[in-house]
Design a protein that fits this description.
Layout lengths: L7 E3 L12 E3 L13 H7 L6 H17 L4 H16 L3 E7 L6 E7 L9 E2 L4 H9 L3 E3 L24 E10 L2 E11 L6 H46 L10 H13 L6 E4 L6 H10 L8 E5 L5 H9 E2 L11 E2 L1 H4 L4 E5 L6 H13 L1 E2 L8 E2 L3 E6 L3 H7 L4 H7 L2 E4 L8 H17 L6 E2 L1 H9 L5 H15 L4 E2 L11 H4 L7 H19 L4 H7 L4 H10 L10
Parallel strand pairs: 9-16, 9-17, 10-13, 13-16, 18-19
Antiparallel strand pairs: 1-2, 1-6, 3-4, 3-8, 4-5, 6-7, 7-8, 11-12, 14-15
Helix pairs in contact: 2-3, 2-5, 3-5, 13-15, 17-18, 18-19
The protein binds adenosine-5'-triphosphate (ATP) and magnesium ion.
Length: about 550
């Protein structure tokens, strides 16, 4: 053994593994390495003798299969090391990668090493491994126990006593022209063995590892981005359905909040009743987003929007081939909501046959997909909503009584807007801010006459109608104030708003003038002299018009 070189370093041009491999013998022992592979060496490794190139290809193929066969990078790396051990006679193998945060070479996978090897770190340039990463060229250490640069970090010297003379071969893992890590193996020293062959196999393996690492990092980066985006979206959703976003502090709404607070932490089935546009869906969202199921899905099914033939597959899913066109298996909304909340909106619209099937799922908490025999257990919290008179439907026999009692465990009645007039202004201000921001309008306030019109109206479409009215007004307003004439025509009727329909020019001008005066008085807190100056008129004329239009300046003092 003493006749062999102590250390050989290959200075191979980085990206060309099969080309230009020149040997540089160490100055201290200027002895050339053995020339070509010698059969006895193969026999000593115990590996079946095959034609050299075929064997090399087979190894490379297995390496690529090991990396391609898994989505987990580490598993892939272990697979590569295992192939090198099995096919090439490596006793140990390790892959290091440069850690982005520290810039250190960190062991990602190590086979045949003590467990502690996983904690080993090298600085780039440090020892043999660090040197390979720095130079981007392979290194071969024929006798690692004799090599002064060998750090013995992964296997302490003392643990090598019984293992004989070992060689160490290390190649860089190159990525975009620079080192991203190293691939190294230890094998029993063989005097006449051509390490160049093994270096070639290692270099090709390293190139495959490099590809796998790149893909893994791309996927990991994308996954991370998606996780962040998801967290942010969840946060946005939570904020959107925060109680603070349910506007209104009238007595009836406070009662609603109390009821919500009573059931929010429980898994109780809730039925939300109320006229169209009162905010039932908003409350259903709040119930979910403040419940222990908040991290799980909230799935809404609009029962009114589905034809009867589709409701069943929509709710329970279907198996492949369950009906013409069912080309793939599809999960239903119940399964999609597993662990979370299923919100059945417009429950009053369900057909009798769907009611029967729904009842079964609610009773047994399990279902079968359409066309399937497997029983699927689901854990779903049910929230339903309707603006229908269900009791009347019960009496008429169009809604099942047993289903009604299953769903009607805890009921929240959302009052119509006309019964909580004190919320109208709060909601109007909230929507002005929301839509001014959305449409980038500098709307600051609603004029007093416009407020009067909003207050006088009976809001048959409830909050939704108010929201639409304000959005429209924000869009049509030309200045920074929403005036009466910016509100929708339905509010302009004498009956609704108390203002007279402008039948003549004089009347229309009168309404407009009255609005302007009230606005000016509001800005000056009822001070007539200042209001007159604002409108570029005299106090005398202003007082005259105030009397004529029956405006009470005192109401603006507060
Ligand atoms: N208290 C509230 N605070 C803020 N926005 C509200 C409030 N109530 C309702 N809204 C808004 O009004 C609109 C209608 O509310 P929602 O869809 O919840 O009504 P709904 O009761 O489900 O009506 P429908 O019976 O017609 O489905 C939504 O845009 C909602 O954000
Ligand atoms: Mg709704």
């Amino acid at each position: 053994m003493s006749h062999a070189p102590r250390k050989i370093v290959f200075n191979v041009p980085s990206l060309m593994p099969d080309d230009g491999a020149r040997r540089r013998t160490d100055a201290a022992t200027p002895r050339p390495a053995p020339a070509s592979p010698v059969p006895p060496a193969r026999e000593r490794t115990g590996i079946p003798v095959e034609d050299g190139d075929v064997r090399k290809l087979a190894t490379v193929l297995e390496v690529s299969q090991a990396l391609a066969g898994t989505l987990n990078l580490q598993t892939g790396l272990y697979g590569v090391l295992e192939v090198l051990e099995r096919r090439c006679g490596a006793r140990r193998g390790a892959v290091t990668l440069i850690e982005e945060a520290s810039g250190l070479l960190v062991v990602e996978a190590a086979l045949g090493y003590p467990r502690t090897a996983g904690r080993v770190r090298y600085r780039v340039g440090e020892g043999i491994t660090g040197g390979v990463a720095q130079r981007g060229t392979p290194a071969v250490v024929p006798h690692l126990t004799e090599e002064p640069e060998f750090l013995h970090r992964a296997v302490p010297r003392g643990e090598r006593q019984d293992e004989g003379d070992m060689s160490f071969l290390c190649v860089p893992i190159l990525m975009e022209g620079s080192s991203a890590g190293t691939l190294a193996v230890e094998m029993p020293f063989m005097p006449e063995w051509d390490s160049e062959r093994m270096i070639k196999v290692l270099r090709i393996s390293a190139a495959l590892i490099s590809q796998a690492v790149r893909i893994h990092r791309l996927i990991e980066g994308e996954r991370q981005r998606l996780v962040e985006e998801n967290t942010q979206l969840r946060e946005e959703l939570r904020e959107r359905y925060e109680f603070s976003n349910i506007v209104g502090n009238s007595g009836p709404m406070r009662q609603v909040y109390e009821q919500v607070a009573q059931v929010v932490g429980t898994g109780a089935t809730v039925m939300i009743r109320g006229e169209s546009g009162t905010g039932k869906e908003l409350i259903a969202h709040a119930l979910h987003h403040h419940s222990p199921r908040a991290g799980k899905p909230f799935v809404r099914v609009n029962c009114a929007a589905l034809p009867e033939t589709l409701v069943e597959t929509e709710l329970f899913g279907h198996e492949r081939g369950a009906f013409t066109g069912a080309q793939a298996r599809r999960k239903g909304k119940f399964e999609a909501a597993d662990g979370g909340t299923l919100f059945l909106d417009e429950i009053g619209e369900l057909s009798p046959s769907t009611q029967a099937k729904l009842l079964r799922v609610l009773q047994e908490r399990e279902l079968e997909r359409v066309g399937g025999n497997d029983t699927i257990r689901v854990d779903v919290r049910m929230i339903t909503a309707t603006n229908k008179d269900l009791e009347k439907a019960l009496a008429e026999g169009t809604f099942r009584e047993d289903l009604y009692y299953r769903l009607n465990v805890f009921t929240i009645h959302v009052p119509p807007l006309r019964e909580r007039k004190s919320d109208v202004l709060l909601l109007a201000d909230y929507f002005v801010e929301k839509y001014a921001r959305l449409h980038q309008r500098a709307i600051k306030r609603i004029s007093t006459p416009a407020i009067d019109m909003l207050m006088a109206y009976h809001w048959p479409g409830n909050v939704r109608e108010l929201e639409n009215t304000i959005e429209r007004a924000v869009l049509v307003a030309d200045g920074d104030v929403i005036h009466g004439h910016h509100l929708s025509p339905t509010l302009q009727t004498a009956e609704a708003s108390g203002t007279v329909v402008s039948r003549s020019l004089a009347e229309a001008v009168g309404v407009f003038e009255s609005n302007l005066i009230q606005d000016a008085l509001k800005s000056t807190r009822g001070n007539r002299a200042k209001a007159a100056r604002l409108l570029d008129t005299t106090e005398r004329i202003l007082s005259y018009k105030v009397r004529r239009y029956g405006i009470d300046p005192h109401r603006f003092r507060g």
